[in-house]
Amino acid sequence: MSGAVVTHGTDVLEETAFFLDAVINCGKPVVIVGAMRPATAISTDGPFNLLEAVTVAVSPEARDRGAMVVMNDRIVSAYYVTKTNANPMDTFKAMEQGNLGALVSNVPYFFYPPVKPTGKMEYSAQNITAIPRVDILSSYEDMSPDTLYSAVANGAKGIVIAGSGPGSVSTIFNNAMEDVIANKIIPIVQSTRAMSGEVPSSGVESKTAMHIVSGYLNPYKSRILLGLLLAHGKNMTEIAAACLPSTAA
């Protein structure tokens, strides 16, 4: 086979795409595609998107680019793509990184040769029978630490924080995070609810607990990655290295 196409609902398409990008490392194109307009809508985009997805999947130029999302004439890396709007067709984008290419009259055109995203690591899913539970908690004003302790008490083995701005949380919630990290040995990854931009380590450093930052990965991608790392038995230091793309090997 030259490649594969996965049809998917668009609500959580980016999460499946990110997972496939992390665990399928054969070099052949894997294209994830969906439709923003249902089949009952006027001028539905499903058949057109599917045609373009298959066209990209069989293109020799699509090899060694990881998983890709193809919709609305755009070819986007699954590592960075996100759903930026709930309604229009032009919604799947990599806001800071841009598109890998585009299609014109159903002919794919790539803007540059195959390149691996900075810090991206590959993982095997062959021996994984289950992925540990990872919860996402969103930061907001007067956020109670009860939500964190509840997630842990109910079986979460990892936590992702969709922090305010560059990953920030309130002082009281930060104190609870320190407790969970240091005393329960549960990794907490700090991402951003802004959905784009970097969460740098300099903003969350602590002398009493290992805070882990997501770099340029949004909370949903951070959750998938943390689950994979936990499934592989990675320790805190290894998780921290993998979750920060700007410094990971």
How would you summarize what this structure contains?
Helix content is 27%, strand content 19%. It is built from 6 helices and 12 strands.
Structural write-up:
This protein has 249 residues and is α/β, with parallel strands linked by helices. The chain folds into two domains: 4-110, Rossmann fold (3-Layer(aba) Sandwich), CATH 3.40.50.1170; 134-243, 3-Layer(aba) Sandwich (Rossmann fold). 27% of the residues lie in helices and 19% in strands. The protein contains six helices and twelve strands. The chain has helices at 13-23, 46-57, 146-153, 171-184, 219-231, 236-243, and strands at 4-7, 30-33, 67-71, 74-77, 82-83, 92-93, 101-104, 107-110, 134-138, 158-163, 188-192, 212-213. The strands form three sheets. It has a six-stranded mixed beta sheet, sandwiched between helices. It has a four-stranded parallel beta sheet with strand order 9-10-11-12, with helices on both faces. Strand 5 and strand 6 form a beta hairpin. Helix 1 runs parallel beside helix 5 and helix 5 runs antiparallel to helix 6. The mean pLDDT is 93.
